[in-house]
Every structure is written in C-alpha cells, then in structure tokens.
Amino acid sequence: MPLIVQKYGGTSVANPERIANVANRVVKGWREGHRMVVVLSAMAGETDRLIGLAREVAEEPDARELDVLMATGEQVTVALFSMFLKSQGIPATSLLSHQARIYTNRAYGRARIIGIDTARILEELKKNRIVIVAGFQGVDEVGNITTLGRGGSDTTAVAIAAALKADLCEIYTDVEGVYTADPRICPRSRKLSRISYDEMLELASLGAKVLEIRSVGFAKRYNVPLHVRSSFTERPGTLVTKEDKDMEDILVSGVTYSKNDARVTITRVPDVPGIAAKIFNPMVEANIVVDMIIQNTSIEGLTDLTFTVPKGDLKKTLELIQPVAREIGADKLLSDEHIAKVSIVGVGMRNNAGVASRMFSTLAAQNINILTISTSEIKISCVIEDKYTELAVRELHDAFGLEHVRPRNRLN
Ligand code: ADP
Ligand code: ASP
Ligand code: MG
Asked: Which atom of ligand 1 sits closest to the CA of residue 173?
C-alpha cells in the first residue's frame, strides 16, 4: 500500500474547526487505501505565545526548559487531531517524539535529527491506524526533549518520509505552493509548478520560509518527492524535485528576502596575516554563523572588515568581538540591525553573466544603495536598508519578468 506523509502547518490546525477539516482530508487518503502518517505543527501563534511566557519568568530562558515548554504546542494538536479521528470511528494514534523515536543531538533549540527508529510507526501502520506525529520535537540519547528550530515541523515530516521511504511527502500550508516571491508582499508573484532541490535550498536559506531549509536538505539527500500545497484548496501546488534540462532554461526562478541578519563593521583593522582568524574563531566556537564577509582594500596597512550575523546573535557577537577589536588595535566596532538581504535565485544564471548587472541596475534605478553583495553559482544576494525591502523585491520580480511563464523570463 502506498505510504504518504502529510505535514500541516500552524494555520492549517489553528482551531478545532480547521483540525476537523484537515482530518477529513487525511481520512480521504486513508479510505483510498493509503497508509497515512501525519505530522503536525502547533496551532498558529502558539509557539510564539509559549516563548513569550518563558520570557515573562526569565530574561534568558534556560534552553533545555524552553524546549520542554515549546514542545507542548505540538502535543496539543496531535492529541486533538487523533481524538477527533477516533470520535469518528477512524483508527488513529498520536505519537510524541520519544514514541515516534525521533532521535536528535542535544543542541536545544536547534537540534539535528540523527536517526529515526521507524519500528513503532510501522507497527501502528500495520494495525491500519493513521499515525499522527508531533512535529518540531525530538529526543536525545538520554530522553531529554529537544526542538529542531523554528519551522522545524517541515524537517520532521521530510525526515520521517525519508526514513519510511514514503512514496510522497506533502507539505500543507497557507499558500498554494512555492511562488516566484513571497505572495504576501509581491502581488504579481506566480506559483511555480516545479522547482529543483538546489533552488529551493537557496530560496529557503535566503528567507523564503515556506519550507524550512533542513527539510529541503533531507529531501534532496534522500530523494523524497515534496509537494508543497494549500490545505484550503484542492489545487495542485509545487513539486520540489530533481533538476532537469528544462529548468536550466529559466534564468531566475524566484526573488526572496530576509530581515534576519545584522551587519557588523570593524574599522581600521591592521591588514596582517592571522587577524581574520582572531576575529572569527571565537564566533565559530560560539556556534554563530557568519554569512557575508567583506574586507575593503587596505590603506596604509589598515582595512575595514564587515560581516553579517543572525540578529539574534548580534549581542553575543559584539561581546565576543569587543576584546579582540581592542587587542588588535582596531578603531571602531559598529553594528546595524536595519538591513535586509534581497536575493535572486535560479539554476539558469549559471551560464549567464548579465544577471548580476541587471539586478544592480534595477536597484540603482530605485536609488537603493547596495551595502554588501554575495554570490554563488545559482544566487545573487544584496544587503540593503530594510525600509526598501518590499520595493526591491517587487522591482526585481518585474525586472526579471517573473510574472510570466517561460520563455519570456530571459535576458534578451
Ligand atoms: P506553515 O505554518 O504552514 O509552516 P509558514 O508560515 O512557515 O507556514 O510558511 C508559509 C509562508 O511562507 C507563506 O504564508 C508565505 O508568506 C511565506 N513565503 C515566503 N516566501 C514564499 C514563497 N517564495 N512562496 C510561498 N510562500 C512564501
Ligand atoms: N511550531 C513550530 C514553530 O512555530 C514548528 C513549526 O511550526 O514548524 O516554529
Ligand atoms: Mg513553516
């Protein structure tokens, strides 16, 4: 019997009515003869509410206890969901992470899945039950509760789909699929029928939160076909899949943005070997991910060094850098939280040199200053002032003709 893993996000299970609605969709699949594993998020807003509660009792909540708290959000939805199904006479069972045996390391708040023992899930499926698994949470080797990071239910779903070798993994959300830009800020954005794993990885890492990045990594590594779609309609969504020849014809697949980063600049740093290591080593040890780094040309042996870090890590970063900056005799340590990163992504840009210049001139035409640039084979990112984010996304979307289906999306 085919096996389908379905994941429902917070808005899809936001209240009892929606839970019932979504449950009926699951039952439909089950009646058609599919084995069904359902992964649920907490109700919309619940995880934020829990974090708020934690902050009311502690300025910096203990990471272990915060995970114990946050994991309750998903416990509520799986219980209600399963309860509803049983009340309708449908065999179902809810499983928390220790019962579904989703094992992670102990990095509270950003734990990594290291293995899933599928025996219990398979046992339940054998009894013809619908299995409802709590997303976002895991358990470490001694039984501590962990969470996978915000949006982590996507990762739970894909990891389970990979472990069970599911025939399909469907991610149900509040938009109809993956769009050429966030449909909430770009009215002309268009739903993509397909997108490659690599493009989706870039989009996710550059801010398109429709899929959590690690879920895409799992899907790519284990070749899990992903279908991103809406729980509010029956229309087909977006298939995230292996790259094929057709995809290369498309220069740019999407525009995305992120306001998650802050910029740090150290001025008048001595331009001698070993300085970068001195500055960045403490950050590596503190698990802070540095994204863009630029070093200006040095003048009289002194240079400015600029880099970006997640906003949540800015305070820690400054604490770590302050003593180093003093030690190496740098002049100033500056930071700026009012920045945004806008990016364009597409496998077709590999063979096309004109993409970057079109991006830069589009921003220039709007008088948007580019603070930092970074590129990879299939993406170009620019850091700008955050007040221009929406304008930049819309203008870039227009400049690359993304509202049109191929082949108008070309440079000439
Ligand atoms: P869920 O709670 O179902 O996991 P999320 O809020 O995490 O849903 O992700 C869905 C949201 O992602 C959408 O509401 C949309 O605003 C946002 N989003 C950002 N970029 C894109 C994009 N390129 N395509 C579709 N949605 C996007
Ligand atoms: N409930 C968690 C969050 O809000 C996980 C998820 O929804 O995927 O981040
Ligand atoms: Mg999400």
From this structure: 3
CA–centroid distance, residue 399 to ligand 3 (Å): 28
Ligand 2 centroid to Cα of residue 10, in Å, is: 7
The number of C-alpha atoms within 13 Å of 317 and in the hemisphere containing its C-beta is 28
CATH code of 296's domain: 3.30.2130.10
Same domain (yes/no): 42, 161:
yes
Both 29 and 133 in one domain: the answer is: yes
Residue ranges making up the domain that contains 106: 3-174
Among 10-24, 165-179, 341-355, 370-384, the range scoring the smallest mean pLDDT is 341-355
In this structure, are residues 104 and 63 in contact, taking their beta carbons and an 8 Å threshold? no
Closest ligand to residue 175's CA: 1
**Ligand 2 atom nearest to CA at 152:** 8
CATH number at residue 153: 3.40.1160.10
Residue with the smallest CA separation from ligand 2 atom 8 is: 151
Residue 380 CA to ligand 1 center (angstroms) comes to: 21
Same domain, 7 and 116: yes
Residues whose CB is less than 8 angstroms from the CB of residue 93 and which lie 6 or more positions away in sequence, other chains included: 82, 124, 129, 130, 131, 132
- Number of separate domains in the chain: 2
- The pair of structure tokens assigned to 297 is 């040309």
Q: Which ligand is nearest to the CA of 48?
A: 2
Q: Which of 139, 174, 209 is the last residue of a domain?
A: 174
Ligand 1 pocket, residues with Cβ under 6 angstroms: 9-11, 41, 151, 173-175, 178-179, 181-184, 208-210, 254
- 305 occurs within a structural domain: yes
Ligand 1: which residue has its CA nearest to atom 5?
Answer: 210
Dump pLDDT digits (tens) for 67-104. 999 999 999 999 999 999 999 999 999 999 999 999 99
Closest residue CA from atom 2 of ligand 1: 9
| End residue of a domain, out of 159, 174, 189 | 174
Same structural domain, 24 and 130: yes
β-strands 238-241, 226-230 pairing: antiparallel
Rounded CA gap, 121 and 96, in Å? 11
Ligand 2 pocket, Cβ-based, cut-off 6 angstroms: 9-10, 41-42, 47, 73, 135-136, 150-154
Q: DSSP secondary structure string, 7-62?
A: EE-GGGGSSHHHHHHHHHHHHHHHHTT-EEEEEE-PPTTHHHHHHHHHHHH-SS--
pTM reported for the whole predicted model: 0.91
Radius of gyration of the chain (CA): 23
